[in-house]
Amino acid sequence: MGLAEKEMAAETHAQEPPAPTSNTAKACNGFSGVAKQPRRACDCCRKRKIRCDAQEPCGQCMKASIRCAYLQPPKKKGPKGLRSARVLHALRKIDDTASGPSASPAHAQFGDWQWGPQEPRPGPSDVYDSQSQEIQSYNHVYQRPDIAPSTQPYFQSIPSVMSVRMPQQGQSAVKLESRPDYSWSSGRTDTGSLGSESIPQVLSPTSSEAMHDFSRYQDPGLAKCMPDRGRSPFSKDDRWSTSRRLPEDTFLPYVQLFFTHMFAIMPVIDRSTFLDTSFYTTGALSPDMYCFLTALCSATTVQLDDSIPQPQSPQPGKKADHLFAEECLRERRTFDHAETMSPLSIMTSFFLFAYYGNHEKHFQAWHYLQESITCAENLEMDDEASYEKLDPVESQWRRRLYWLLFITERAYAVQRRKHTRLHASVALPAVFESEDPQLLAGFVNLANLFSAVDESFVSAWRGSRRSSLCDEAWLARTQKQLDTSAHAANLGELTETQHLDIGVTREWLHVLAWQLGVSNGLIWGQGEGGMRLDYPVELARKVVEIVGPAKAIALDSHGIGMEQKLSDIAGCLADVLKCTAGDTSATFQEGKQYLNILLGKLSTMRGKESRYLTPLLAKMEGLPGYEAISEDLALPTGMEDEYATNLQVPALTTPASPRWSMNQSVSMLRTLSFTGTLGMPGIYVPEEDWTQRRPSARVLEDHELELLQPWLNSVSTQ
DNA sequence: ATCCTCGGATCGTAAAAGAT
DNA sequence: TCTTTTACGATCCGAGGATT
Predict the structure, then answer these.
(1) Would the Cβ of A106 be found within 7 angstroms of any atom in strand C?
(2) For A528, how many CA atoms within 13 A lie in the half-sphere containing its CB?
(3) Three-class SS of residue A114?
(4) Please, how many CA atoms are within 13 Å of residue A10, restricted to the half-sphere of its CB?
């Protein structure tokens, strides 16, 4: 029946103007219009799965009074690259295993897994919960974050579900699980029964689609991912008021900025979804999608600040970032966002954190970061097992989001001396199977780097670790780990933005670790873990080598976080230089130059002078050569950056020699070890924050200073 | 009675696999 | 290189649920 009727239907429409993209119709037959004319359904009809007459606007859209558009580009048909081979390989492997010498007949195996057609067909949850040991062995690698899971292609985790489902021919579940190579770039989520989505709402698997399309909540699989929510909390009965909202097309220019400059460090949303113009023309963004977009825009605006020209604020006279953040908070008050937790709300909180963090409003920033973490915990994103219950695509998006929170929490906790809550307890997102392996490699690299900042580091930094545990060996291990963790990938292949992030962050952590050592009196050790007085100069050189040639925008897109790191590094360097006042050794001169360059960078960060610069300069008062620095910085506006980038980085020949020509007194180390400055990242923040700092270091006792004497002598005679 | 959603049948196309 | 097979995206019918 179907075909005949279909053809008749096609014939009925044969008189209509050809579909926009159809030029094959006439070639199809010599038989007037009976052809199965390749029609083009409009975006809405496609989504509604109804016949479209391909008019503009089409009849269905007219009838429904909705905007008709043909914006969604058709996807490429046919098998995808290696996918077929991969799936076949995986299936064959399973088959081999199942029919191996020790195995009982295949049907018995299948029977165990409830494959048999006579068995009642298991629902999705049954399937997921009834994995055999053998199946789990495919997955075990994902449960061990200590090995590099990123090197495991996704498909290795697929057979578990696929093997269970394949025999259910024609069931949507098959479609769902047998698609290991996700069309990330196309934005297609294709979660099986939900897979025929396509419209603009081909949203990222981070459930934005779910947010947008209520019907998805009716899917048991998805409902499972969203505890206690079988359906949308936003019922269509109580449609949200959009009267006070910003027009939806406000967002796109900012979202574009986000993808151009910030996506590399926050690869947690789907590009094609959020860059699709039709996404912003529905006129029906759900409240939490609206919140998410406003939060993202506010964070993007403030983070990029004046680095690049930005669109005019939607409300002239009001700064765009404030406006977006305000809108976000206003909209959030219209519904219970604690009840509607989803990855989308995690990201909303996260971007609010970024907004406040960039404004140095640390109470609010920490609050929203914690909120996003709490939300992640509620969704059990810190539990590896939870990911296996998810659609593989969704699970990858969530992994990215989890690790973004992890990285951010670690960095921020260190800067603000807070506890951390998240652990490296889940596998990293996959790299090689992602839409952009290079980009993901960078992201994973950063995650690895922060994995080296373990609990003991954080607690030592907070001062809550027993100082006896903070010995030289431990520090040396930590320092070494920082270097090895980020070497998994060739940094040269990363985007400039990521290269900067990883490189500077690594050296910044080195600086922190070094300060940790100094404040624990380790400066006179064997030099392990860089516990030498000139180590910060060496670190500064590396930083200068990284940031010197970097394009301003690549540096700027990291927002205030990068300013903080650079100023921490510069501050530490300044401390060291200050302590060696009067020293004329090569090391000192080089150090001065590096400091100079760093200050130059800070003077032009994000299109203006960093707020950290002035306090830094004030701190350097009395540093010999400082006069020169201030003169250098007094370059005409617009030239500073050029000045900084063009400055030749002097080659610091291996352990600079002569090192410090130290005739310096023991008081130098006394100064270094004093709580005044060292171990105080983010030191140039408003007064009240001083109270949050621990007295991180101690003044050396006299008997310790005596012990130092031989070391000082040996250094000074080198 | 009407509207709406969505499972899934069917088709066209493109890539992979196989034949020569 | 040509042919066949396979995978997959697109369309949209029609069952069944929701709404009026």
Answers:
(1) no
(2) 11
(3) coil
(4) 19
- A575: three-class secondary structure by DSSP: helix
User: CB burial class (10 A; 0-12, 13-18, 19+) of residue A195?
Assistant: middle
According to DSSP, residue A464 is labeled -
Which residue is nearest to the C1' sugar atom of B12, using CA?
A: A38
Q: Which of residues 8-67 of A touch strand B (CB under 7 A)?
A: 24, 28, 35-36, 38, 48-50, 64
> What is the structure's pLDDT at A325?
94
The nucleotides of chain B lying under 7 Å from a protein CB are 4-17
Tell me the two tokens of residue A352: 């609010």
A227, two tokens: 């505890």
In this prediction, the residues of chain A whose per-residue pLDDT falls under 70 are: 1-39, 73, 78-243, 282-284, 432, 461-474, 485-494, 517-532, 578-587, 618-718
Task: State pLDDT tens for residues A474-531.
Answer: 677 777 777 776 554 454 466 777 777 888 888 888 887 777 766 665 554 455 555 6
Asked if the Cβ of residue A191 lies within 7 A of any atom of strand C, the reply is no
In this structure, which amino acid lies at residue A458?
V
Work out if A89's Cβ lies within 7 angstroms of strand B: no
* A14-69 pLDDT tens trace: 333 333 333 333 333 322 333 344 567 888 888 888 888 888 788 888 888 777 87
The Cα A381–Cα A398 span in angstroms is: 7
Instruction: Answer for the pair A524, A708: CB distance below 8 angstroms, yes or no.
Output: yes
Per the omega criterion (within 30 degrees of 0), is the bond before A655 cis? no
- pLDDT score, position A70: 80
For residue A227, is the peptide bond before it cis, meaning its omega torsion is within 30 degrees of 0? no
CA distance A246 to A179: 38
Phi (first) and psi of residue A470, to 5 degrees: -95, 55
C-alpha torsion angle, residues A96, A428, A443, A159 (rounded to 10): 20
CB-CB contact of A183 with A190 (8 Å): yes
Q: Name the nucleotide with the smallest C1'–CA separation from A6.
A: C13
Q: Write the single-letter amino acid at A372.
A: S
Question: Do A288 and A340 form a contact (C-beta atoms < 8 A)?
Answer: yes
State the pLDDT at residue A296: 95
Report phi then psi at A451, rounded to 5: -65, -25
What's the CA gap between A550 and A14, in Å, rounded?
Answer: 59
Cβ proximity of A668 and A523 under 8 Å: no
| Chain A 190-249 residues whose Cβ is under 7 Å from strand B | 193-194, 196, 213, 215-216, 218-219
Start-end of H helices in A425-490: 437-451, 455-462, 472-485
